[in-house]
Amino acid sequence: MNYTGVRAVDVVVIGAGQAGLAAAFHLRRVGYRPDRDFVVLDHSPRPGGAWQFRWPTLTYDKVHGMHALPGMELTGADPRHPSSEVIGAYFDSYERTFGLRVHRPVSVLSVREGGGDSPWTEPAGTESAGTEPAGAAPAGPLGQSRLLVETSQGTYAARALINATGTWDRPFWPRFPGQEIFGGRQLHSAQYRGPEAFRAARVVVVGGGTSAVQQLLEIARVAAGTTWVTRRPPVFREGPFGEEQGRAAVARVAERVRQGLPPRSVVSVTGLPMTEAIRRGRESGVLERLPLFERLTPTGAVWDDGRTVEADAVLYATGFRPALDHLAPLRLREPGGGIRMEGTRTFRDPRVHLVGYGPSASTIGANRAGRAAAVDIRRLLTEDPQLGYGATSLTGSIAS
User: Which DSSP symbol is given to 245?
Assistant: First the structure.
């Protein structure tokens, strides 16, 4: 491989949603400098993470469980404005306030082992972003070299990696017999842009999560008829969801991750909060749930008990999977299909941290994971001789 022009940095952060920005903030707090000691890469066209792609009728007052980023509250937002605009503007202000210098749009193509004898150099005319002398071959954990982060805008050689890519880019499409012959429209909730597209239509909504319920309640106001279908009976949660319940839910997800199993959806461990809108939906019959249908037909759906429903559209609000394909060359997955974790650190490679994955998939969890990853990486890069790292010069700081 030709290594000419590869840029050496201590840390690459992939993704600038809640988790990536929290990690970048805490990297600054422990002394790393943006665009010199670490870089933040984001493939989205503008600030806002996955929020920028949410449907316009999801106004800020309907957002469930949005926690502020570390060091800066979200204040003065109009609850009637689309959440994509409110949170996008907040993230934009956050990036500028703390000088995080997010590079976008940059797509990360792959992350792989760099080899043991590669001279890392800087593109001509740029300031060195590494801490080793020019032309040196930096050491890595267990005698390995740096990680090569190959992107649409060049390659970085990183001593550590924080992956914060979330799930938005991997919508999960379930497979059913008859999907290829259904004559109506089929779309995923990631493609949903509001209820008007379903006016006077007969719509089947598949999925038991928060997005499924929110979109179903919107569609029901304009559709000719709706049918709600879920794999298992939904669990509606009455009352507050306090710290004790939160810790229990996180512990259940964390245990799966420790075992190397894929994390389950958030709603599978928290249940659906019983809001006033949901209460009205249950009373009106909109949220009367049916089990999964057996197959689709040209004109609708059929159940194994003979029940049929005519439909013009099927909306799959079936969630997302972690967007981790670019990490495949590192072979981090366990036989169970997930990535085994110790805190935010992957078990198979201590240089690689996942934030916003598994138990840190919530916004408050992403904040905490970002801090944990930054602190652990600083320790790895400066204090642990068993990992083969040389000391890093940390000369920057920021105000809290």
Answer: H
Question: What is the arithmetic mean of pLDDT over 379-387?
Answer: 68
Averaged pLDDT of the chain: 85
Could you name the CATH architecture of 7-168+321-387?
A: 3-Layer(bba) Sandwich (3.50)
154 membership: H or E segment, kind and range: strand 154-163
Q: Taking the model in full, what pTM does it have?
A: 0.84
Burial (CB count within 10 angstroms: exposed 0-12, middle 13-18, buried 19+), residue 90: buried
Helix axes 363-382, 18-29, angle to 10 degrees: 40
In this predicted structure, the answer to whether residue 389 has a pLDDT above a threshold of 50 is no
**Superfamily designation of domain 185-235+271-316:** FAD/NAD(P)-binding domain (3.50.50.60)
Q: How many CB atoms lie within 10 A of CB 331?
A: 9
Q: How far apart are CA 387 and CA 360, in angstroms?
A: 26
Rounded CA-CA distance 91/49 in Å is 8
Peptide bond into 119 cis (omega under 30): no
Nearest residue to 356 via CA among 128, 84, 14 = 14
